[in-house]
Amino acid sequence: MIELKRDKTPREVTAQVLDYGAWVSTLGRSEIQNVFEAYRPGVPLESAFVDAFDETVPDEISAQQTFTIVAASVDAATERIVRFLNEDYNVPINVVFFRHFVDNGSTYLARTWLVEHEVQAAAKAVVPGKRSSTRETWNQLDWYVSFGENPTGRRWVDGREYGFVSAGGGDWFSRTLKNLEVGGRVFVCIPGTGYVGVGTVVGEAKRFDEAIITRDGVSTPLRDLPLEGTYRRAGDESDDMAERVVPVTWIHTVPREQGFWKPGMFANQNTATKLRQQFTIDQVSAAFGLDG
Q1: I need a surface site. Which of 60, 172, 233, 257 has the fewest CB within 10 A?
Q2: Are residues 151 and 213 in the same domain?
Q3: Is residue 286 helix, strand or coil?
Q4: Same-domain pairing of 215 and 167
């Protein structure tokens, strides 16, 4: 929350910025979406957010408030109130001063903070019983899966051909695959490329050397198939290092060269996570002809 005031700032500004924050704290994701749609009809919030801030909309929004008053100067009452709230009660409120000056033909803009310390973690401002969810509701079905291709390792052409997603090289990369439930729908994205497939999970995560792929009623160990990629690595005798494979029945796929991406779509560093962002689901479904 940023409140801009010209010249000297009366103490009422502090009350005003807190009042704004109290109002914002009651807004859930759907209310914020409605406010934006009234302001920019026909423009997706997710796309506009990327244009403005060069990053995607956070999974959880309006859960934390930070209050900043911007002014050339403040009166003694305002300074006293801000210091009292910030230093004694950890309310994330501060004043930033900007000063403009010229020296030898060069123009400078100097910035100083009233309370000089590391920016505090914003305190959550929750109004019990009045606030709807600050994040989109998971539909209990859809998952995001990152398929990290590697020229000398994992290849999407294999996953597409034989019906699987995989990850490995450390427990951090593979452990989230264990969360995928049989019957869940996965939206598969190659980082830096885009979404390349949507399918249904048909089995639990298994080590590569134990994974079984079933095609046309015939079950075959994945390791025995003519794969283009490499899924074994040094030290993969350990379960933590081993490649983990989840079998998938594809609904629609495209080659990596046709990966689909629009600004504002969901991406995540985890290999598998719940896909809550309806914008991404809608965009990929439309691009892949899944609307029906």
Answers
A1: 257
A2: yes
A3: helix
A4: yes
Number of domains in the chain: 2
Q: Are 196 and 190 in contact (CB under 8 A)?
A: yes
Please give the backbone phi and psi of residue 166, each rounded to the nearest 5 degrees, phi first: -155, 165
Tell me: do 20 and 77 sit in the same domain.
yes
Predicted confidence (pLDDT) per residue in 237-255, tens digit: 999 999 999 999 999 999 9
In a domain? residue 137: no
Q: How far is CA 161 from CA 13, 194, 196, 277, in A?
A: 62, 18, 13, 28
Residue closest to 203 by CA, chosen among 174, 237, 246: 246
Residue 155 and residue 99 share a domain: no
Look at residue 48 and tell me if it is in a domain: no
Buried (b) or exposed (e) across 218-256, using 16+ Cβ within 10 A? eeeebbeeebebebeeeebeeeebbbbbbbbebeebbeb
Q: How far apart are CA 150 and CA 169, in angstroms?
A: 12
Contact (Cβ atoms closer than 8 angstroms) between residue 83 and residue 114? yes
In the chain, where do the E strands start and end? 2-4, 8-9, 67-71, 73-74, 93-103, 106-113, 142-146, 164-167, 185-190, 194-201, 206-207, 212-215, 218-221, 244-253, 272-274
Determine, yes or no, domain membership for 57: no
Tokens, residue 190: 């190659």
- The model scores a pTM over 0.90: no
Q: Are residues 187 and 228 in the same domain?
A: yes
Q: Which domain holds residue 21?
A: 2-27+62-113
My answer on whether 66 and 159 are in the same domain is no
* Ranges of H-type helices in the chain: 12-24, 29-39, 45-53, 76-83, 89, 156-162, 171-174, 278-287
Each residue of 107-151: pLDDT tens digit? 877 777 888 755 444 334 444 444 556 678 899 999 999 999 988
Segment 170-185, tens digit of pLDDT:
988 999 999 999 999 9
Q: Flag whether 281 is in a domain.
A: yes
